[in-house]
Design goal:
Length: about 230
């Protein structure tokens, strides 16, 4: 991570205060003074501030059951930010590992570990996200084959990656994706002439939403590890 970020993650300093300390020559990395706040450092580097060795706080991993009319953003907008429901210290250090639309409900993962987020959100990670979708019109019994082959989304050159469709009733399905393009589920059903009327994310990999709407909890060690294996 960047040096200024490491200093923030191991002290009570805000980013500008950390940058000031670095510019003033108060920060040493492996025995050398460093005045560039943007250099990359690792947990195993010896980083000192005014002669004191810094130890980074552990990463945090949370899940929340997102209610409708909340925003996957660090700041409020048309609706309140999801972070207004989470009572933790330094919420600005956290980010969302895979956003949902304002009207979508369900599982959202939140962390300050960028590598973990990449494992979840990058299509190369092949991480399964399961959505429960209610539809305006009955879906054709053989629609699963098109979703498996890939759907041509408006404005995209490439087909969507293979997605699994499980029909629960003609107007309620479970859709499993391994990627997360902008408004992907809504656009996939629009592309086959249907319309999503409600969308709920039930799980990401081995993590399922198991708290009441608007509630959150920390992930277990096993849940965190799942995305690193
Ligand atoms: N796909 C969508 O269209 N919306 C979401 O919120 C998530 C996936």
């Amino acid at each position: 991570m960047r040096l200024d970020r490491f200093v923030c993650k191991s002290t009570e300093l805000l980013q500008q205060q950390a940058i000031d300390c670095i510019h003033q020559g108060q920060v040493w990395v492996n025995g050398n003074v460093v005045v560039d706040e943007s250099i990359q450092v690792h947990e195993n580097n010896n980083i000192q501030l005014k002669g004191q060795t810094l130890v980074s706080r552990p990463f945090r991993y949370l899940l929340i059951n997102k209610p409708a009319n909340t925003l996957c953003s660090n700041v409020d907008g048309v609706y309140p930010s999801l972070f207004s429901l989470i009572d933790v210290e330094r919420p600005s250090e956290l980010h969302i590992a895979g956003r949902l639309d304002a009207d979508t409900t369900g599982l959202v993962l939140i962390t300050d570990d960028g590598r973990w987020t990449f494992a979840i959100t990058s299509p190369s990670g092949q991480c399964h996200k399961v959505y429960r979708v209610k539809l305006a019109k009955p879906i054709a019994a053989d629609a699963g084959e098109s979703f498996l082959q890939g759907i041509a989304l408006q404005g995209e050159q490439e087909l969507t990656l293979p997605a699994q469709l499980q029909i629960i009733t003609p107007q309620e399905v479970l859709l499993t994706l391994t990627e997360g393009k902008f408004h992907q589920v809504k656009r996939m059903f629009a592309a086959v002439g249907n319309k999503v009327v409600s969308l709920h994310r039930e799980s990401i990999g081995a993590v399922s939403v198991d708290v009441a709407e608007g509630e959150w909890r920390y992930l277990s060690v096993d849940e965190v590890q799942f995305f690193y294996t």
